[in-house]
Structures are given as C-alpha cells and as structure tokens.
Design goal:
It contains two helices and four strands. With 132 residues, it is α+β, with helices and mostly antiparallel strands. The chain has a four-stranded antiparallel beta sheet, with helices on one face. Strand 1 (86-95) and strand 2 form a beta hairpin. The longest helix has 25 residues, at 2-26. The termini are far apart. The relative contact order is 0.10.
C-alpha cells in the first residue's frame, strides 16, 4: 500500500511540473511557446512591446503619398539638408504597401545623391556623392 502511494505521489508531482512548464511556455509571458515571447503576443514579441510607429515613425493610419507630394517632400529635404543641391528627377516604384519614390539629387560640382521616399513620406538618403 505504501509503495502504491509513493508511486501515485511521484506521478502527481511529475504531472504538476509538466503542467507548470506547459503553462509557462504557452502563456502571455516571456516564454518561447506558440503564444509567448518572441513567437507571439507575449512580452517582447510582435505586439508585446512598443511598435515602431509609437516612437516617431509614420502613424499606423497614414495614407500613402502621391507623386506631387513626393516631389514636395524631396525638395523640402534638399533645401533643409543639402544646400546647393537640386532635384533632377523622380522615379516611382510600386510596392505592395504603396508607391515608393527615388529622387536623384545633383550637387553644385555634379555630385549625385539618391533619396528614397517611402509611401508615408519618410526620407532616407543614399550615396556619398560622386562626380560625373
């Protein structure tokens, strides 16, 4: 009888430990299970921490810009950050989330810079500048 109680007690303890481990890995905590941590809604996962648009990026409800607005954004960026440069041409690229634009910017000695403008109006400068 004591032997049966000992085996039952060990079985209950093992099941309790396994249950705790399963609860830790699949809950909203920092585990790596199907819903926790890096793989889902838990802390630090996609949706657990602050989103890129909460830190000064484009708002989640932003609408895509058109070509005229892209030209205006490129001209404003050049005036503010690249004195002496001017926008040569603007090329449109269609992407799944909206149209992107590449502006070719020319400097006073023929240097070229490229500006990429995403569908929400954010600008990224490319190219260290080179003479023609």
């Amino acid at each position: 009888m004591k032997k049966m109680l000992g085996v039952a007690l060990v079985a209950v303890m093992v099941m309790g430990i396994v249950g705790l481990a399963v609860a830790q890995s699949s809950g909203p905590g920092p585990g790596y299970g199907p819903r926790g941590g890096m793989m889902g809604r838990g802390a630090g996962g996609p949706g657990g921490g602050p989103c890129w648009n909460q830190q000064g990026g484009a708002p989640a409800t932003a609408t895509a810009i058109d070509e005229a607005k892209a030209k205006e954004i490129a001209a404003e960026y050049v005036t503010k950050n690249l004195p002496g440069y001017h926008v040569e041409k603007l090329v449109k690229f269609d992407r799944p989330r909206g149209s992107m634009y590449q502006a070719e910017v020319k400097g006073p000695q023929g240097e070229l810079q490229y500006l990429h403008i995403n569908p929400f109006g954010n600008v990224r400068s490319f190219g260290a500048g080179r003479a023609l």
